[in-house]
Design a protein that fits this description.
The complex is a heterodimer of chains A (269) and B (271). Chain A has 269 residues and is an alpha/beta fold. Helices cover 29% and strands 24% of the residues of chain A. Chain A has two domains: 222 residues, P-loop containing nucleotide triphosphate hydrolases (Rossmann fold, 3-Layer(aba) Sandwich), CATH 3.40.50; 40 residues, no CATH class. Classes of the chains: A alpha/beta (269), B mainly alpha (271). At the A-B interface, strand 6 and helix 2 of A face helix 9, helix 10 and helix 13 of B.
Chain lengths: 269, 271
Amino acid sequence: MTHTPHRLEIENISIGYGDKIIMQDLSFQVPHGARVAVVGPNGAGKSTLFKALVGILPLKSGQIFIHGESLGSHKDCVAYIPQREDVDWRFPVTVSDVVMMGRYGQIGWWRNPSKKDKQIVNKSMEQMGIADLAGLSIGQLSGGQQQRAFLARAIAQEPHILLMDEPFTGVDATTQEVTFGLLDHLRDQQVTAIISTHDLNLAASRFDLVLLLNHKLIAFGTPQEVFVKENLAQAFGNSLLVMENGMMLVDECCPPDEEHTHHEHAEVK
Amino acid sequence: MNLLLEPLVYQFMQRGLLASVIVGVLCAVMGTYVVLRGMAFLGDAMAHAILPGVAIAYIFKGDLLVGAGVAAIVVALTIGLFSKDGAVKEDTAIGIMFAAALSLGVALISSMQTYAVDLSHILFGNVLGVSSADLWMIVILSLVILLTVVLFFKQFLVISFDPVLAATLRLPAELLRNLMLVLLALTVVVSLQTVGVSLAAAMLVTPAATAYLLTRRLLPMMLVSALIGALSSVIGLYLSYYLNIVSGSTIVLTATAFFLLTFLWKRMKSV
């Protein structure tokens, strides 16, 4: 698996449904092989951004470039791990069927999988520790195993950019570590990973870059640069609580329009 | 043995049996997509929507299949037009067209003199009236549809299971979805003669749902579904012959019996 150097450039994109704009005038650039956490409050447009990046939601304006070429001119360089609730787990497919789908971009339209495709599928499943589950239907797996099946599919796709929507929500610790192990492996191969998460601790400790969003770009940079009070206050508004020792809490349980007043008394060190 | 061979002395029975088996298999195969993609309502609507086309063809003594085909395509395109850019939701558009086409069809048929007989043939099929020209039409259309499913098996699997993957693989998802709708419309048209418009939807859903309970992969599901569709057609047609009941309903009831038995068997096994 050799990849040419690659990068992702987002230039002034606006995305939305109908007349409603979800993401306004967003620009950022991701260098080769970086691991980017996408964070922001609920409904900030994280999933919408992902839909635009995979090309299922057309841009209202602006452009997306991958390796300097516009989105869609590369056939198989973006792999996407869907959110759990977006998958029909009762669909009659086995684990190896799911992983093989990652090869469909390479297999011709009217051809059967080659020996090489099968080898890549087996290797991907071994790497994710699910080779012994190959013949089971995906509905029979545990949540973590299901996620690993989709990760194996993403590896089989041999992508240059990997997109994951909330992969750490509701999975066990093993799957989380397996996922980070895979991300380390992919970084060695210069694969760019863009991952949305609610877990600000993970974003701060295990990612190179953080993209903080709230319907527009709030901040983009290293975790140290991004996670400062001004940015977080701008992104999370009333659900941010800053303690006197400088510790900051984000409370996301309540509807965004509900009023909170306690943060006004908080100080940052 | 005699009991099985006796009806086949008649040529119309031979043709009827062949037509029902082909349609049973065809509906069962397309039905796997209907079941997995949650298109049962669309299948039902499509089946009823071809009624005006059939009625017009009937009145002008034209070919029923041609009339049905034209109506199916008009309805499919209109549904697409109404739901384009989210003007109304797709199932709403389907509901509007479904009711409108059915009413128009009934209105047209009720103006005929032989109203009762004709309506029942259209609604419930007239498998014993299959001419050899009809049979050829059924064979050719079915082969075209099944061949298309074989050719696009991988692509249809991806757009059904994971539309987002289809997008990242840059598959023309919209085109494939429309192709699937056209295949579905043609399937309904083909099944018109054997089970009729009101029962075509059942043949799309019931064998496939039975197979869904029994299998864990798409291809085995299709094959089991096809087997159940074929068996239901054969058994149903014999029941129809000996009990003197409309063939469409015996075929569908046989398929339903398969589903019930499978469902109960699964329940018993899991207790």
